[in-house]
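Honest question from a wet-lab person: if I give you the sequences of every part of a complex, can you actually get the arrangement of the whole thing, not just the pieces? Trying it with mine:
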Amino acid sequence: MPTTATVPLEDTRADAVEQTEAAHPWVTIVWNDPVNLMSYVTWVFRTYFGFPRTRAEHLMMQVHTQGRATVSHGTLEQMETDAQAMHGFGLWATVEPTGAGH
Amino acid sequence: MAAGAFEARVDGGYVAHLDAAERGVLVAVVDEVVELLGGDPGMSDGDDPLEMVRLGASLVPAPTDPALLRLLPDASRADAAVAAEFRRLTEEELRSTKVGNLLRLRAALVHAGPAMVVQPGEAPGLAAALTDLRLVLAERLGVSTEADADELHRLAVQGDPAEAETGEVTRRFLALVYDLLTLLQDSLVWLMLDGLPGDDEPDPRRPPR
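Yes, you can. This is the full assembly:
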């Protein structure tokens, strides 16, 4: 997941949030379920997304306690790739436009 | 270490000890889930080239069986068009991936003696297959909350005083199978986590050895 993004020149006056949403218009959400193990969700987040252990565990706990966590940002096509991977692992993921769930 | 849990071998592989009855039950559950996914337990693998031709199919309806829907869930809660397009693009490949993982687990169970040995490279696919088996069993047993899952575990461990009544024996049997799958998966995943680089701090959630 890139932390910097190319922003078109005409967007330079927009605030940081708007720039982020323009470059990463979609997010992937992972949802809690009573079946998936905390160990396994952490392993998926560490190996698929390459998150460091602390970040993977933080997101896993967010799924567990809050019911959902945003795990990636990007284009719709990129988010569909991530959601497909999550479904392959047996986690339930959805894609939605940035900011839709808040 | 409890019977059924995966343990590390000196050669770097993982091993779980399962008796013939346990292996037989797990193969039967694998076959049911393979069938649910539209696969054939007799297939050697999930990568049939003809599957790829069907990727161009038009609309693919969402499954009506809730257990199959849990294996192939909607990718959007709010936007039916996004969910439908996702299903059209990915469902056949996801089915194929899942059937392939399940058939590799099946082969490992069938070819194992009392010791089922798994190489680290095979472990992620087997862990995914164990997840899919648990998702289907949980759906069939009506587990939709953490409390339901705790209750299922209690049933497996303690049984039910009214067990003799119709249905409860089957339910307890499936609860025991679910518990065994959970033990296999959790122990395998902890070994997989041990194998990742940069994991030298002790984890407070790690089960005792």
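Two things worth pointing out. The interface with chain A takes residues 70-79, 82, 86, 89-90, 93-94, 97-98, 124, 127-128, 131-132, 134-135, 138, 143-146, 148-149, 182, 185-186, 189-190, 192-193, 196, 198-199, 201, 205 of chain B (CB under 8 Å). The CA atoms of residues 132 and 198 of chain B lie 29 Å apart.
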